[in-house]
Amino acid sequence: MADDQRLDLPPRIGIDRPGSFSRSVFHERHPVLIENLLRDFPYPAHIQARLENLLAETLNGTVPSAVPPGPNTPSWEAQIAGCAGRPWSELPFLWAESYFYRRLLEATEYFEAESPWGGVDLFAPQKHAQLAGEEIRSDLDAYAALAEREPDERRRALLTASLWGNQADLGFRTTSSIAGQSDVIVDDSAAIWDLVDGPGEGPVIVVADNAGRELTADLALIDAILETAHVELHLKPHPYFVSDATGRDLLATLDTLAANPNKPVQGLAERLRDAIRAERLRLRTHGFYVLPSTYRHLPPGLAGDFRAAKLVILKGDLNYRRLVGDREWDAATPFGEVVDYFPGDVAALRTAKSDLAVGIPPKRLSELETGSPDWRVSGTHAMMQVLH
Ligand SMILES: O=P(O)(O)OC[C@H]1O[C@](O)(CO)[C@@H](O)[C@@H]1O
């Protein structure tokens, strides 16, 4: 279980505390997630049984020593060696969740070349439903209307849309519905644009999170960034957490944009496709993005890419957990102090959907704790935090 061993870091968030959000993910959300998979796919009996057994194991069992099939075997071997035989209930939240999703791919034979279920994205039905949905259509109508606005106003709107786009996380919606947008608790947006427009030949790297409404908003933001910088969009190499965006999702999203009746949206699809062909927009992926490690343990190649970038924009809650460390931080701890290890300039854009946060001004923090006690996990509060 590679993670930072520094003794002065707060304890890791676990999944054992009754009443905690992290425990509810395993005990309330995952049973529904498995039920949804059994509803969405006509799995044969052996896959149904594997899914049910996996769920039971996570609720009451221990971690087996076998390494689930798929890429990154050496990393998983090392990770599992540190956890085999331990009850799931004792595992750190980040590790347990990441391993759970890897085991889901095993149960559904995702990596089995000879299986008819091999390569079938188990979350595709939910992703497709969102891409075909009314909410995306109305997002794109709003995008089209932005064409009339002043450049600064457009930029502000696109960054805000990408930030709140993170609410559209289908895993989160498994058991919770998000009740509206409250406020942006920390807003470092000016620093983001300064870095994007600043000197240097390096690309702006956008590390994507969810497909669907979030990726759609991210692509509109990327189009605006392309006016002053090259962009690299980093996607997951294979399905992982519920709606995580892969290359296949990106292509489906471009098709959705191209088929939209609004001319400005069709124009967006065309510019993005041209930018990909011309390699001003590069699509990348990396095995690191589907491991339980934090960003403190970046592989050297990816760390070098981040160092050379103008700015790295990390989207979403899971990336935030991996950046900050999934620990019981005092939320008033300065963001820069916690992430000063990061190899380059970094911006985190997330709606808060898990227990951790840092960089909240103390006065604001006490207002939140009294006025909106569930602000950390409700998805209704957002933050844009920058280290440079
Ligand atoms: O899609 P995001 O923003 O990374 O969020 C994933 C969310 O799913 C969870 O992992 C729970 O399943 C949360 O902890 C996290 O907030």
TrEMBL record:
Swiss-Prot/TrEMBL GO biological process terms: DNA damage response
Keyword Metal-binding set for record: yes
Keywords, comma-separated and alphabetical: Hydrolase, Manganese, Metal-binding
Needed cofactors: Mn(2+)
Damage-control phosphatase ARMT1-like metal-binding domain span: 26-362
Alphabetical list of InterPro entries matching this protein: ARMT-1-like_metal-bd_sf, ARMT1, ARMT1-like_metal-bd
Coiled-coil region list: none
Stored SUPFAM superfamilies: AF1104-like
A molecular function (GO) term: metal ion binding
Pfam families in the cross-refs: ARMT1-like_dom
Catalytic activity: beta-D-fructose 6-phosphate = dihydroxyacetone + D-glyceraldehyde 3-phosphate; beta-D-fructose 1-phosphate + H2O = D-fructose + phosphate
Family membership noted in the UniProt record: Belongs to the damage-control phosphatase family. Sugar phosphate phosphatase III subfamily.
Protein known as: Damage-control phosphatase ARMT1 family protein
